[in-house]
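Re: [ENG-882] Designed sequences occasionally contain unexpected residues at chain ends

Forwarding the minimal case from QA. Structure tokens:
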């Protein structure tokens, strides 16, 4: 938490923005929440305890967190921008249920190696990798 908060404070200072209590609360809530929340979902989670924090503030703060590299933006085909900590960005992949929207993360060394091989076969240096598989989760298959 310490290093992340420092990173955020430095970014705000560099852009002449203030470190407000609200921004701190949103950062903490983001880091403690389950992954893949949209700004709206985070706002709804915060609302009970912090009714003074508006949706626009959450929305803008999440954009700032993405700009300074703490949060990674994700799009899973439903037009929502979702956020997850960028430390977890690289080495996990996503299964997305097209019916209920459930998102499952998985890791697989073999896929990682395969992607590396594909990249180097095309003389690419791999910076990021992203793999999203769309389908139906077990629950939705039985409906
Ligand atoms: Zn489902
Ligand atoms: Zn994820």
């Amino acid at each position: 938490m310490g290093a992340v908060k420092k990173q955020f404070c430095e970014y705000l200072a560099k852009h002449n923005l203030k470190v407000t209590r609200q921004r701190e609360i949103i950062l903490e809530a983001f880091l403690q929440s389950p992954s893949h929340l949209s700004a709206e979902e985070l706002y709804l989670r915060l609302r009970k305890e912090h009714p003074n924090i508006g949706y626009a503030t959450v929305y803008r703060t999440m954009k700032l967190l993405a700009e300074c590299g703490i949060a990674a933006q994700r799009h899973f085909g439903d037009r929502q921008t979702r956020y997850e900590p960028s430390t977890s960005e690289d080495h996990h992949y996503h299964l997305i249920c097209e019916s209920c929207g459930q998102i499952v993360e998985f890791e697989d060394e073999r896929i990682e190696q395969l992607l590396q091989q594909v990249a180097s076969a095309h003389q690419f240096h791999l910076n990021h990798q992203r793999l999203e598989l769309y389908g139906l989760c077990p629950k939705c298959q039985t409906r």
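QA comment: On inspection the terminal residues look reasonable. Helices lie at 2-14, 21-32, 39-47, 55-67, 109-121, 138-141. Proposing we downgrade this to a documentation issue.
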